């Protein structure tokens, strides 16, 4: 089979505050010359590094090579909001209320398995609470409609035996220091992470056990006899088995074309400030999925707040600096409305981050060619879903049978999208409508 040329690479826009605050603990090295390995993993984010760790558990004697097109945590893994959520969380549904009991309980079980895997990593590598914090999260409501959505969410959780705590406006004010919110619903099982620091600490912990090459984009990938060969800028890797953990970028490798929705979301992080805004750390999801996500973090003895708003459909997997700046101005207004006493605190970082969705809310997973495996399409929950997909891809590729893998494999493939421009018009219109309806929640 001839090698497939990878004609586009992801482009990151803006500097992620998470990445800027996460120190490197090992030197970056790029791929040089010809290499051979038992396993090649493409992508050093949540999926790729989780696959590498699971492979180390299953095949400790095998040589594992991981390639990343950029430095670790500069890409999508270091650009998300850092919520590892256990309960169902479907961004495309218009609300968070869970569906059927059986499917919801299965999803919760899978999410918690991924969180437990991550918790084992955090414990082994000594991650502090500022990096890995099992503190739960709050769905915050700023409108009467948001309160109704929260009531529906809490009711649906009770129906499947899941705990939650309803918070009133006074409790929300005590937590956040803001009068903006009318109420909230706390779920205890979520873990809050500093995503870039988690990924960099995981990569550092795997050093010596796997060979990680950064700034080494795969420019072509093809099968040569019994092995696959990936060619990068200054070197190549041959391996009989390859795991692609590149999220929506898997389309660039020629797989799942016209089945994945490439969406970007946007975030800004304040400069450090000494106090205010309630408790030391908190994490808010909007009652409406298209609203504003906020987190307060502590770093170096001072506080910062991260605001994430807005979604755009970008099938070319890139956004402009102008787009980031425009949405950053909206995030400034959202922040000032919530925290008028902090209007003088500047936004130090603003950035865009890629999401990958499928219309039927399933991953792009499985053996897609002999010896080539996909652990992609996280459906807006990259921290948990990509961790899970990486684990499952390692088990599938090693022939490790488990009930978890059998259940994970029962999912259908991502549904096909309509042709352009119908897809663009439809997706763009749905996003725009949901964002307008979110109103004050945004």
Give an overview in words.
With 442 residues, the protein is an alpha/beta fold. It has one domain: 3-Layer(bba) Sandwich (FAD/NAD(P)-binding domain). Helices cover 31% and strands 26% of the residues. The chain contains ten helices and 22 strands. The strands form four sheets. It has an eight-stranded mixed sheet. Strand 3, helix 2 and strand 4 form a beta-alpha-beta unit. The longest helix is centred in the first third of the chain and has 24 residues. The termini are far apart. The model has no long low-confidence stretch (mean pLDDT 95). This is Glycine/D-amino acid oxidase-like deaminating enzyme. It comes from Castellaniella defragrans (Alcaligenes defragrans). Keywords: Oxidoreductase.
What's the CATH class, please? Alpha Beta
Helix/strand structural class: alpha/beta
CATH H-tier superfamily: FAD/NAD(P)-binding domain
Query: What is the number of beta strands?
Result: 22
Summed up, the helix count is: 10
Total domain units: 1
Radius of gyration using CA atoms only = 21 Å
Low-confidence stretches: none
Measured as a percent range, the helix fraction is 25-40%
Beta percentage is 25-35%
* Assigned CATH architecture: 3-Layer(bba) Sandwich
Q: Might you state the CATH topology name?
A: FAD/NAD(P)-binding domain
Average of per-residue pLDDT values: 95
What order do the strands of the largest sheet run in, or round the barrel if closed? 8-9-7-17-18-19-16-20
* Largest sheet data: 8 strands, mixed
Shape: globular
Kindly report how far apart the N and C termini lie: 49 Å
Protein name: Glycine/D-amino acid oxidase-like deaminating enzyme
GO molecular function: oxidoreductase activity
Domain FAD dependent oxidoreductase: 38-396
Keywords: Oxidoreductase
């Amino acid at each position: 089979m001839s090698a497939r040329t990878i004609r586009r690479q992801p482009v990151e826009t803006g500097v992620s505050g998470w990445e800027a605050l996460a120190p490197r603990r090992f030197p970056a090295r790029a791929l040089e010359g010809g290499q051979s390995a038992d396993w090649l993993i493409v992508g050093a984010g949540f999926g790729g590094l989780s696959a590498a760790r699971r492979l180390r558990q299953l095949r400790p004697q095998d040589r594992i090579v991981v390639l990343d097109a950029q430095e670790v945590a500069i890409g999508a893994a270091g650009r998300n909001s850092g919520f590892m959520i256990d309960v169902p969380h479907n961004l495309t549904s218009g609300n968070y209320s869970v569906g059927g009991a059986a499917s919801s309980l299965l999803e919760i079980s899978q999410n918690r398995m991924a969180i437990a895997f991550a918790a084992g990593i955090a414990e082994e590598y000594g991650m502090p609470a500022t990096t890995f914090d099992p503190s739960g999260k709050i769905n915050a409501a700023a409108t009467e409609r948001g309160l109704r959505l929260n009531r529906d969410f809490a009711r649906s959780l009770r129906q499947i035996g899941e705990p939650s705590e309803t918070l009133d406006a006074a409790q929300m004010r005590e937590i956040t220091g803001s009068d903006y919110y009318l109420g909230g619903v706390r779920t205890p099982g979520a873990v809050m992470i500093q995503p870039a620091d988690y990924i960099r600490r995981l990569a550092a912990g795997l050093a010596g056990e796997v060979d990680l090459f950064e700034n080494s984009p795969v420019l072509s990938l093809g099968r040569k006899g019994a092995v696959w060969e990936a060619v990068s800028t200054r070197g190549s890797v041959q391996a009989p088995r390859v795991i692609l953990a590149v999220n929506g970028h898997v389309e660039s490798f020629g797989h799942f074309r016209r089945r994945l929705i490439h969406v970007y979301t946007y975030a800004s992080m304040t400069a450090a400030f000494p106090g205010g805004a309630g408790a030391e750390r908190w994490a808010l999801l909007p009652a409406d999925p298209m609203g504003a996500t906020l987190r307060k973090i502590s770093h170096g003895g001072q506080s910062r707040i991260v605001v994430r708003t807005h979604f755009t459909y970008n099938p070319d997997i890139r956004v402009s600096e102008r787009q980031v700046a425009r949405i950053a101005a909206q995030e400034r207004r959202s922040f000032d409305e919530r925290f008028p006493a902090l209007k003088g605190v500047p936004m130090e970082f603003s950035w865009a981050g890629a999401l990958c969705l499928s219309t039927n809310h399933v991953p792009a997973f499985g053996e897609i060619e002999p010896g080539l495996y996909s652990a992609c399409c996280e459906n807006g929950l990259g921290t948990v879903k990509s961790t899970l997909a990486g684990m499952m891809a390692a088990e599938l590729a090693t022939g490790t049978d488990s009930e978890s893998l059998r259940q994970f494999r029962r999912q259908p493939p991502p549904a096909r999208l309509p042709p352009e421009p119908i897809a663009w018009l439809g997706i763009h219109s749905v996003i725009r409508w949901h964002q307008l309806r979110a109103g004050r929640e945004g």
